[in-house]
Amino acid sequence: MAEQEDVIELAKRRGFFFGANGAYGGVAGFYTYGPNGAAVKDNLESAWRDRFTVRQGNMEIEAPTIMPEAVFEASGHLDGFDDMLVECPECGESHRADHLIEDNTHIEEAESLPISEVEELIREHDLRCPTCDAALSGEPVEDFNLMFETSIGPGSGQPGYMRPETAQGIFVEFPRLKEYARNRLPFGVTQIGPAYRNEISPRKGIIRVREFTQAELETFIDPEEDEPPLHEVEDVEVTLYPADEQEDEDGEAYTTTVGDAVDEGVIGSDWVGYYLGVAQEWYERVGVDMDRFRFRQHLPGELAHYAADCWDAESEVGAARSAARSSSGDDEEPRDEGDWIEITGFAYRSDYDLSKHAEHSGESFTVFKQYDEPKTVERATVDPDMATLGPEFGGDAGAVAEALQTLAERDPDAFDEAEVEVEVDGETHTVDSDVANFSVEEVTENGEHITPHVVEPSFGVDRIVYTVIEHAYRTDEVDGEERTYLALDPEMAATDAAVFPLVSNDDRLLDLADEVTDDLRAAGLSVEYDDSGSIGRRYRRQDEVGTPFCVTVDRDGIEGDGPDTVTVRERDSARQVRVPVSEVADEIAALLDPEDDRAFDALAASHDEIETDVETA
Amino acid sequence: MAEQEDVIELAKRRGFFFGANGAYGGVAGFYTYGPNGAAVKDNLESAWRDRFTVRQGNMEIEAPTIMPEAVFEASGHLDGFDDMLVECPECGESHRADHLIEDNTHIEEAESLPISEVEELIREHDLRCPTCDAALSGEPVEDFNLMFETSIGPGSGQPGYMRPETAQGIFVEFPRLKEYARNRLPFGVTQIGPAYRNEISPRKGIIRVREFTQAELETFIDPEEDEPPLHEVEDVEVTLYPADEQEDEDGEAYTTTVGDAVDEGVIGSDWVGYYLGVAQEWYERVGVDMDRFRFRQHLPGELAHYAADCWDAESEVGAARSAARSSSGDDEEPRDEGDWIEITGFAYRSDYDLSKHAEHSGESFTVFKQYDEPKTVERATVDPDMATLGPEFGGDAGAVAEALQTLAERDPDAFDEAEVEVEVDGETHTVDSDVANFSVEEVTENGEHITPHVVEPSFGVDRIVYTVIEHAYRTDEVDGEERTYLALDPEMAATDAAVFPLVSNDDRLLDLADEVTDDLRAAGLSVEYDDSGSIGRRYRRQDEVGTPFCVTVDRDGIEGDGPDTVTVRERDSARQVRVPVSEVADEIAALLDPEDDRAFDALAASHDEIETDVETA
């Protein structure tokens, strides 16, 4: 059974990721991707772009990471994007108050509790500083805004913030983006890029960091008209953990289809259901272990007030299953449960975002929705007698007239009475209904301005990269020696194949190694050439990087009368087969091609296999 | 002749780029890439990665954008990364003092002048506020640090900065990166990502912005051993504008080969020369117009003190040449000179960066260089008689002993005298040479620890994207109508081909359009399907986006007895040819394939051409 520390140690050793600025002691919450990690992350982002931008026909944009304060006043981040902070009176260390409660009591989701209750719980449970054990009872709990603040321009400048989500860079440009979409709903806009949260106490290594990458899709829909192509994914099986199962003591996650879950109302929005189905297939494609994966519905207390329905995709980490368990298919073996971490959020956000930006910016964030045929509608209107209003209300007369029109639209029946009341600047005025000249007109309308609703799948790229690496982590024994390998999907692996010349003092052998390398590269594969250290060491290196195939060029292959051969070794099985040089590039390309179902078995059946003894752990 | 405003207007209209946060009035210096711009930028980054990471065998990493203060104390950015600021006493607007001088006098490179001289020049020329015309004489000029500052963690936190260059994220991780390179020089590390400069007054649209993307390559070399493969690029022709030509009144840029320029010492470093050659071919590949391109050497005053030689790649913008001039090959036509903007810097940075980080962090930033054979070397050493030093120097005795060892290594001859002098804590002590027990030992060394030198090509991605778009901007007249198009290289274009069904009420025609779209996508092309508006309007849209080929599906093509045909239109010539549906995907794929030299002429020769009247502007 692999421990999370083993994965993190391998990640550091093999250039996947490591804490940044180590020479200066490091800064919690900031990680650097080494060459292999950057390659896996790039592969993951490409796979995301392929599925959620290109194949969905969406537009991808790239917006700045620093945004002005006005954006976050509108979005609500300036006021509400807070965590609860409690500072130790002894050592001065800051802690998340809700985490202290969750870690030391049976209370879950302490984040949604009011501050006063959190302070009360700290007192009640006599919670102490995890660093120095000083009592925290009586210490004030405060809201701490998680945005990184900076200043734009010289002097005192204007306040700016590192965006806490890529989404705002899309919402705020809606007025222009809708033009690129030729003003037709539905349309989707994606963005992949950095986002920032100034976490109070980053922990869990790369899982809770201060700078991370998001891949977000904002789908703008007409809620009355637009339906997702649900039929495309209705048969996709998903593991769901709905709110009621979470609230029930004996409740648990269960497997069903997207279609059934939407029909039965377990998933409240067909758009959210559609994206769960699309995403489910995508997680499988990139190598998330579906035995350690679920969709968890937000509990009522977790839901943002504007969100009608929200589900998180969660993966289980910290309880990596061994190769033995996976290959025997025996799921009965007891194991420790790991941590469930959110890797994607799926939210039906209604018109909240666009309405807020419209309200705060004064610009139009609507789309003109043309009717199939012009509609004749009744419209209540007034035509106030200004010769009466003027003398009566003086400078307020105009405002009173406007208020009458507003009233007519909102409550036309009010004008059935002899007098109506309107409010101007907090003062109530009474006006004779006759003076208003109320009437109902018939008007022809070609369409209406509507504020689109937003459906958002928001992917945490780093957490998915971590999950994919941890879920690929395996150990076994080959020819009596323990080894560790990453069973990464070829689409995710940093390198497709590695070429090893066995010795470095044989020109014919080195030429052959170059020839094989060139052939593989010409077939479009990424190839690492490694001539350093023993062959065993080179295999170990590539196994730990997750390279699917290794090609060794040795003297056996170039002696004798037959054609020159090399050995091709498959990562997961560690089996080795002798393959003629002329065939090797085509064979490996076919094995890597997801559309070609050729298996290593077939290659082994038609070529000489070298015996290897593999013992799964 | 295209004006820069036309390019910027087209960029906004067609979704290349536009000022961000427009709904809130915008913030100077921040741009958003719309879908077409993001695609061009992504293509450019892929082409860079292909050439400078993959083909060079370098490692790519991804480091955080927020870094702690200690990094920038070491790098020198905290102290020296300043611009000169003068604030208007009337309107309060901030200006770059050096720009005011350059704009209003004949002085160039005012940036390198000391502040007192800049203040004097403002007085002397009676320079005024460009915003309100108030006098600036007598106003203080101040250094303004260009890094965006933020605070990491809760409370007062620790200071952090948005990185002003991606390079520091590489330098600071050198101790780990060298392990991934198996401790062997030379090796290169690349990074593509955001960088930030809090410009005092951003101007020139997307040319001088506050958030931008860099693509940097740091090559770590042993300056005594490592040679670049100069032969690969020695015959590449480059336009050079060396320092002496810039300083000579009649001097000008001239064309030579990389090999000659290195041989003649015009380019001072063969590594810099090598990268100029590699980059030259890359700029051509991505579509920079080589008539509006040069390599300009830094003047002695511009050079950083640690840089031995530094060249900028510069492109000329703001003077787009017309299609007429480009197609007639007539370069005699007079034209206005545009602005030369730096798009890449090539610097030999010596061991400056690694030495500084070693000094400030106390960590090792060296590589152990193994000798081919162990060397026997003489090493001067002392073995001071502490029984004498102790009573004489008390608590300082240890420090005096250390100072004696340092002196022995630095100046062994000093011990020939009867007495030597050493300094401890600013105090000079005299010691009898005998007490030092000086000797020279023979020791065997297997190698030495060396601090690698750095050669850095640093690309400004956004400026290259802008250059590629502006240099591709063309106007002409097709069938009597003016049109604008972007003659983008297919590798850069956002879309490979567009498919237009002529009418929307003919099922057979729509099915055929779907078939063609699927065929093109199956051939690996990115395809836009556009059924909105007149055909003329759709052509205009795709021309302005720079889509190389448009395929129109009309009734003519499906009537009659022969096979179904569609028209294929080439962007630059606007010529149209009828091609059978069964051939269209292969033909367009061949036309787009850079390794296939098939031309549209050949297609036209073997198929029916529809007459088009094209008049270049």
Automatic annotation (TrEMBL), chains A, B:
Domain Aminoacyl-transfer RNA synthetases class-II family profile: 6-490
InterPro entries membership: aa-tRNA-synt_IIb, aa-tRNA-synth_II, aa-tRNA-synth_II/BPL/LPL, Anticodon-bd, Anticodon-bd_dom_sf, Gly-tRNA_synthase/POLG2, GlyRS-like_core, tRNA-synt_gly
Subcellular localization(s) per the UniProt record: Cytoplasm
Keyword Protein biosynthesis recorded: yes
GO molecular function: ATP binding; glycine-tRNA ligase activity
Sequence similarity: Belongs to the class-II aminoacyl-tRNA synthetase family.
Protein name: glycine--tRNA ligase
Species of origin: Halobaculum magnesiiphilum
Name of the gene this protein is made from: glyS
